[in-house]
Amino acid sequence: MVLGGARSGKSGFAQERVCELASLDDPVYYVATAFIKDDEMARRVERHRSDRPDGWITLEAQREVHKAIERLPVRSILLLDCVTMMITNFMFDQRTDWDDLSKEDEDRLISSTLSYVDQVLMAIRGRSIKAVLVSNEVGMGLVPPYPLGRIFRDIAGWVNQAIAKEADSVFLLTAGIPQRIKGEPR
User: Fold this and answer.
1) 113-170 confidence digits (pLDDT tens)
2) All domains in the chain, ordered by first residue
3) What residues does GTP bind to (predicted)?
4) Residue tagged active-site, from 17, 48, 66, 127
5) Which of 35, 105, 130, 143 is exposed most, by the fewest CB atoms within 10 A?
6) Distance between CA 115 and CA 40 in Å, rounded?
């Protein structure tokens, strides 16, 4: 797992980790979770694409990421970038009225999002693949002033905890500098 804030270097570092994990005959799959809704996002996606090594296979999986992973061949290497966008997509598919979120709705949203992430983790385990997951660390900033921001921050934190618990190693990137926060150096 690779965590970090915006422009922390997490995607580049994750690509380096994948290159270290892959042998010559292992197929590498880049699972992209972002929707391209405007020109600025298109430029971001293009920058990510141009940074990837030739030969990597890109799968667009904005929804049902677990199903995309279930189709990967055994012995594949997976780079999922990014978990934060994946849960954003899932949450927006669940609800649109964030200002009147009841306690029951909030509990249901938390539960369904964590279940969805568990499906993704089960798909990774079920394929016996090597995986690097990239996620934003969103809990170190200010408390968002609106309900959607607060619930998203909380859910993203719980999702990151669930993934980190299963990961063999976890890195936190700050200003392009990786810090191993879980796992032994290889």
Assistant:
1) 999 999 999 999 998 899 999 999 998 888 899 888 999 999 999 999 999 999 999 9
2) 2-181 (3.40.50.300)
3) 4-11, 32-34, 49-52, 60, 81
4) 48
5) 143
6) 32
